[in-house]
Amino acid sequence: MTQAEQSAADIPKAYDPASVEQRLYKFWTDGGFFAPKVDPSKEPFTIIMPPPNVTGELHLGHALVATLEDIMTRWHRMKGDPTLWLPGADHAGIATQMVVERSLAEEGLTRQGLGREKFLERVWQWVELYGHTIDEQQKRLGASCDWSRRRFTLDEGPSRAVRTTFANLFDKGLIYRGERIINWCPRCSTALSDLEVQHVEEQSFLYHIRYPLEEGVGHVTVATTRPETLLGDTGVAVNPDDERYSHLSGKRVLLPVLDRPLPVVGDDAVDPEFGTGALKITPGHDPVDFEVGQRHGLPIITAMNLDGTMNAEAGPYEGMDRFACREAILRDLEEDSLLEAIEPYAHSIGRCDRCSVVVEPLVSKQWFVSVDSLAKPAMDVVLDGRIKIIPDRFARVYLNWMENIRDWCISRQLWWGHRIPAWYCLDCAGDSIQVLFPESLAAEGLAGGTYRALSEKGLSWADMEAKSSHIFVELDASPIVGVEPPAACPACGGSDLVQDPDVLDTWFSSALWPHSTLGWPDDDDDLRYFHPTTVMETGYDILFFWVARMIMMGLANTGDIPFRYVYLHGLIRDEHGAKMSKTRGNVTDPIDALEEYGTDALRFTLVTGNTPGNDMRISAGKLGASRNFVNKVWNAARYALTIIDESPALQGWQSPSTEHRQDRWIVSRLNRVASRIQRHMEEFQFGEAQREVHDFFWNELCDWYIEMAKLRLRAGEEPSPLPVLVHVLEKSLRLMHPFIPFVTEEIWQSLKERLPEADGLPESIMVAPYPVPDDAALDQDTEEEIDLVTEIVRAIRNVRAEFKIPPSQPLQAVVELSASMAALEQEAPAIRSLARAEPLLFQAEGAPRPPADKTASAVLRGATVLIPLEGLVDTDKERGRLEQELQECLQNLERLSQRLSNTEFTGKAPAEVVERERGRLEGMEERRDRIQELLAQLE
RNA sequence: GGGCGAUUAGCUCAGUUGGUUAGAGCGCUUGCUUUACACGCAAGAGGCCAGAGGUUCGAGUCCUCUAUCGCCCACCA
After folding, report:
1. Are A545 and A195 in contact (CB under 8 A)?
2. How far is residue A902's CA from residue A932's CA, in Å, rounded to a whole number?
3. Distance B51 C1' – A73 CA (angstroms)
4. C-alpha angle with apex A140: A138 to A145, nearest 5 degrees?
5. Among A216, A329, A415, A901, which lies 20 to 30 A Cα-Cα from A190?
6. Rounded CA gap, A442 and A158, in Å?
7. What angle do CA A685, A691, A697 make, to 5 degrees?
8. Is A607 helix (H, G, I), strand (E, B) or coil?
9. What contacts A400, CB < 8 A, 6 or more positions away?
């Protein structure tokens, strides 16, 4: 049986996502709906997806990205904008290299053992194997991105963009090599940028160490948290205004243990209040000391190897691990009575973002991006509003960071990534290329040295590259930088050229992503049409890592902003607000969640109560509530489909006539909600938009309209509510589709099969136009009328519940309609049936009433409901209740009349607000009169 | 040391140009096999919107201060 032949009666009672989702996703991709329909006359909508790590697994953060971006994408596509959502993946240098190294370790292999080339082969194999898991998982989330345009950061296009950018910036002097103090991770064995260091406050100690004066009498005491670095000390600094130390000016002290004489210098960087007021200067291992050292011309001594062990400069400590060395030095200082004090001390320690090993600041030759000239224009575009950050408070965070930005260390001593497009001539620079070998090769007689020296010993460059642990190039060597490898050395014409061994920071390629994915540096059609992109949607945690750098590099490369809006979402936490982590065991796997609750429910949950920039919590309770809503939609549709099968009287459903008040009402409400949704969508308030459609669908369409329509259908009334029901349902499906794409498409297809082909519906709801609110359909009076109907019904139900009268028992009700609501007598069937009021009588105000002492009553705006309850009404209680209502009413009256008699209010408040208050006052007065009337009858 | 966010019903959260008697979901209480849905229907309880000042005709919403929690940035050795 095909789906078309399936009768509505056979539709399952509960929505079954598993039987729907993968089939529909295939239907969408087969239909080619995800690819943009380029139309030069239209402004496109473009989102470039933040590329997940190529070896990653989908987590809820990705699911949130996919959901929010899919909502925007589907909405714009339905609005008719040429819409491109471009997916991709990031090679994620350090992260991926670490994962692969870990897996090699299980085989007893190391990357050095394999050599660069073999290692990279292994990484590519890994990428082939796992590179598409996230893509497949994104598809399960319903992501409607254009897979035909998928990009990987190491693809030829983006790679050429990287090399081009590098070469351009180098030519402009904005990329340079320098010897600077950088963050070094001894475990990852690479330099890191400042952003890749996590500073965490930890309990530690401040050691007070005596440095004897060279002249033999007395000492200076310095305070340090890292005693092992004293091996690299080349000076001691005091504040020049510190009188305690003025006698030391021009003198020298002796470095403990090594007895190296050190000059005492005066420098403002020293805070006399801190510690002892004297600072040991280790330019090779501390950023502040480096600067002090530069100011005073102190030499730089690097006392550590790149693996965190001490080197020859450390003398007796050579070969020790830096922390073992710390202990050893403390012992030796103690013995020499040079350790004056140990003070418990909390301070922040920098750890590697990736592996949590304590980062060692050290002086090293690295490539840097000079950011000052890039930062200014990047600040301007945010200041002048060309780029709008949502929520806007992050604009201040961005600007503040930009103002204090420092040069960006972009070289990494890794193998996986974009290799730096710089080459060196072995003939010219042979003396400047320093090759280091791992300790393990020392036994084989392999010691480090310059290329020239090693080559004279018969080692080939290939061997050096394969076996070395690191290769550094002295600053005097001139790199040949270009997009493609140079054929010959421009200086000597030699052809023995070798490429810089380092790769670029992963974020370097990420910074180009919005234009490199669209074809830059070529003058590509996609680039011309889709760039600048519209929205960059990502987490606020990578505002600096990524967003800031995209803006700088985008402006530098294309001369244009990379995107108009930056939408920053918050982090997802567990139901107690804790960060999700494997060790805590509180991780919700999105795939598990969508299998248990359905993709639409997961997406709905991720958007419920979601506000830009705010963290959110997720829980099984929320997922369940979302699943219930999806099921509600399913069942409302199931009902509608059943009716259509029974009586397919659907003429004019696309723009049905609304002679019936109920029809007019629901269409008015639909358009009002559509208009609110439009506003929220335009303002990126997806949570609010979703809430609007949820409330409309459940509380108005299902709870009232469908219930009222049932009665008309059963009675065979004319006009039939069916065309309106179908109209509103179909429009609602479209409104909801960006949020819950699967269930809406599934229902929409079933609906479409039952509608005349001539109606010209498109193939899929995802390309059906998004409902445009029609102001002409808004009908305030009708909304007020039906509001009163529902209030009358509620009032009667309320009395029924209060007096515990079972639904089976008829309940007589008398409704006194005010003159303006007199026409509501036409709604008698609905009131009678929904409230189970039998008999239901209408009468004008002033007509004789049932005996007051045997009547429960409700005073509404526009009607009084009287319910005779022989023997059930407690007159005193009823009087008490009425008196309480009267009190509340009088209080409101008091407040309203005060407000309205206040000339400040009537003079300053907008006329419509004053008018509204006046209307309220009148309504309240009328209410007061009617309550008093009822009370009088009770006397 | 700077900056940001949160503080609203028992719980989780909305509430975006200041304008009714502050909303939702979950949970709770009561009653319902009402032929779309018990993943449901109906009725209900529950809130000095963290505290104190201020601006305003009017403040959950704007300003100042305070408290608690969380986050980010920063070269206090």
Report:
1. yes
2. 27
3. 45
4. 45
5. A329
6. 40
7. 140
8. helix
9. none
User: Could you tell me whether strands A480-481 and A422-425 are parallel, antiparallel, or unpaired per DSSP bridges?
Assistant: antiparallel
CA of A679 to C1' of B9 (A): 29
Q: How far is Cα A281 from Cα A680, in angstroms, rounded to an integer?
A: 58
Tell me the nt nearest to A680, Cα to C1': B16
Q: How far is the CA of A213 from the C1' of B2 (A)?
A: 39
Instruction: Of A875, A857, A831, give the one whose Cα is nearest residue A930.
Output: A857
Q: Which nucleotide is nearest to A611 (CA to C1')?
A: B14
Please state the rounded mean pLDDT for residues A784-790.
92
The pair of structure tokens assigned to A208 is 């007070």
What distance in Å separates the CA atoms of residue A745 and residue A763, rounded to the nearest whole number?
10
Which neighbouring-strand residues pair with A409?
Answer: A368
Residue A447 CA: distances (Å) to CA of A267, A311, A442, A467, A872 = 40, 14, 6, 11, 104
The residue count of chain A comes to 939
ipTM of the complex: 0.94
Query: What is the pLDDT confidence band of residue A5, given thresholds at 50, 70 and 90?
Result: very low
**Amino acid A667: pLDDT:** 95
Nearest Cα residue to A767 out of A254, A70, A31, A177: A31
Distance A680 CA to B19 C1' (A): 21
Query: Residue A806, Cα to own-chain centre: how many angstroms?
Result: 51
Name the β-bridge partners of A136: none
Residues A928-934 have a mean pLDDT of: 87
Which nucleotide C1' is nearest A808 CA?
B34
Q: Is the dihedral of CA A745, A748, A754, A755 positive or negative?
A: negative
Closest nucleotide to A892, Cα to C1': B21
CB–CB of A532/A560 below 8 Å? yes
Question: What is the spatial distance between Cα A632 and Cα A739, in angstroms, rounded to a whole number?
Answer: 15
Cβ count within 10 A of residue A621: 10
Q: DSSP character for A863? A: E
**HSE-CB for A885 with a 13 A CA cutoff:** 21
Q: If you average pLDDT over residues A749-770, what whole number do you get?
A: 89
Query: What is the DSSP-derived secondary structure letter of residue A609?
Result: T
What is the pLDDT, as a whole number, of residue A2?
A: 42
Report chain B positions within 7 A of protein CB atoms. Answer: 3-6, 11-16, 19-21, 24-27, 30-32, 34, 36-44, 56-58, 72-77
H-helix segments, A305-392: 322-335, 372-383
- Strand-pairing partners, residue A866, are A814, A857
Q: How confident is the model at residue A4 (pLDDT cuts 50, 70, 90)?
A: very low
Distance between CA A282 and CA A339 in Å, rounded?
Answer: 18
Q: How far is CA A900 from the centre of its chain?
A: 47
Task: List residues bridging with A369 in a β-sheet.
Answer: A175, A408
Interatomic separation, CA of residue A902 and C1' of nucleotide B16, rounded (Å): 29
Q: Which two tokens mark A119? A: 């290692």
Question: What does the alpha-carbon distance between residue A110 and residue A94 come to, in Å, rounded to a whole number?
Answer: 15
Give the nucleotide nearest to A806 (CA→C1').
Answer: B31
Q: How many CB atoms neighbour CB A182 within 10 A?
A: 23
Whole-angstrom distance, CA of residue A470 vs CA of residue A433: 11
Distance A792 CA to B33 C1' (A): 27
Please list the alpha-helical segments (H only) found in A683-757: 686-695, 707-714, 722-736, 741-754
Give me the amino acid identity at A533. Answer: T
Q: How long is the CA A284 to C1' B74 vector, in angstroms?
A: 21
Cα-atom radius of gyration of chain A, to the nearest Å? 38
The answer to whether the Cα torsion of A182, A186, A192, A197 is positive or negative is negative
In the prediction, which pLDDT does A648 show?
Answer: 67
pTM summary value: 0.92
A333 and A209 Cβ atoms separated by less than 8 Å: yes
pLDDT at A1: 37
